[in-house]
Amino acid sequence: MTTLTPPPSTYSFPGKSIASEGIDSLFAQVVEAASLPSGQSRSCPAGVYTSPEFLDFETRSIFRREWISLAHVSQVPEPGDYLRVDLCGEPMLVTRGKDGIVRVLSRVCRHRGMDLMPEGGSLPDQGNQRVILCPYHLWSYDLNGRMLGAPEMQQAEGFDRSEVCLHEFRSEIWEGFVFVTLNDEAPPLAEKFSRLHRDYLAKWNMGEARLVWDQHWDCGFNWKILLENFMEAYHHLGAHRKTLEPFLPAKGCWTVPEDPDFSAMHLPLRPDLVETIRSTGDAGTTMTPFPGLGVEDYTEWWVFLGYPTFLLFTAPDRVYWYRLLPTGPETCSLTTTMLVHPATMEREDYAELHEKEVEAAVNFHLEDMEVCAATQNGMRSSAYEPGRLSHLEEPIWLFQRYLAAKIREQA
Ligand code: FES
Ligand SMILES: [Fe+2]
């Protein structure tokens, strides 16, 4: 596992008193940038990527309000499987219970509130357990969240362990991805992402896909630095000039019309590759293409962003899904993954293919990590000021418009 070490952070999520000097000016600058026509767009002010107050706003208005993708169901295929995740200070566990149901449970013990699986504890971040045991006083729970036992509680009057269970957060499985929201009023995902599904994602049928690779990165940059990098193909020219640019040239990319819930960009293959695919009908991929796709779909890759952080980079034969969570104003936790169709895993040469594709994925992700960390350096400099954007960065401007809408909503 490759890990980038973030700079030390003393930030705490809202609840602490934090001076708010300057935040209104920052909000006004984002709203102003977002209101420019796309041809006049420019990057955001540095405070958007460094300010604790701006992260407070995002935590309240985005991460505690919206649907956040945490896992793919193929990561928890068996009863007892779990995956540990922290969403802006909320310790969570994605589990598959004995009843086969996937839930998002709180890791806060119902006794005196200890995190049941603290970072660096004895259990790995992902695994299979019949019982979750609180290390503090040994209260225990099953993977459905129900209490199994609590020692020496016979004198606690009226204590009925059958009434005790871990808090369950509102969750949904959409296209095979497990989403959570802390907002009871958030519209269901089938409604929120109906157009994203109908017009774009349905043909991959990602609920059937298998997650075959994941890698965690502790990143020393703001979560939006990564998101913006992910959503624009302009950087293929520089950062990925040896890896992606030779077959996915930045020049041909284009963005679909604005939607309040998502953005999407076409990344057509190099023109001669497109011609070969059209004339042979062969996808020319190393792995097996998703069966719902047709020849035209073989001619391009895509990047999708379901707001705020559902990030997909798709090819005909694989989907890279990112789990992105802020951990501070200048740090984030990123898990990069790759999903394939089960037919790929049945191939005789699968082990070899897997090794080769993971190596390629790590290589281009390292290129992204390098430029993102260096961009965060720029955000700390007194010399930085917003710069003009290329038409190949239109999704950045669209995301500014999403942020501006959230700023206006809270005003
Ligand atoms: S806090 Fe968990 S058993 Fe006491
Ligand atoms: Fe990239």
Radius of gyration: 22 Å
Instruction: Write the H/E string, N to C.
Output: HHHEEEEEEEEEEHHEHEEHEEEEHHH
In which order are the strands of the major sheet placed?
A: 1-10-9-4-3-2-5
Structural class: alpha+beta
> What fold name goes in the CATH topology slot of the largest domain?
Naphthalene 1,2-dioxygenase Alpha Subunit, Chain A, domain 1
Principal-axis shape: globular
Distance between the termini: 43 Å
Ligands, deduplicated: FE2/S2 (inorganic) cluster, fe (ii) ion
Tally of DSSP helical segments = 10
* Mean pLDDT over the full residue set: 94
Low-confidence stretches: 1-10, 15-21
Number of strands: 17
Strand content: 15-25%
CATH homologous superfamily of the largest domain, by name?
Naphthalene 1,2-dioxygenase Alpha Subunit, Chain A, domain 1
| Number of structurally distinct domains | 2
The CATH class of the largest domain is Alpha Beta
What CATH architecture label of the largest domain applies? Alpha-Beta Complex
Helix content: 25-40%
The biggest beta sheet is recorded as: 7 strands, antiparallel
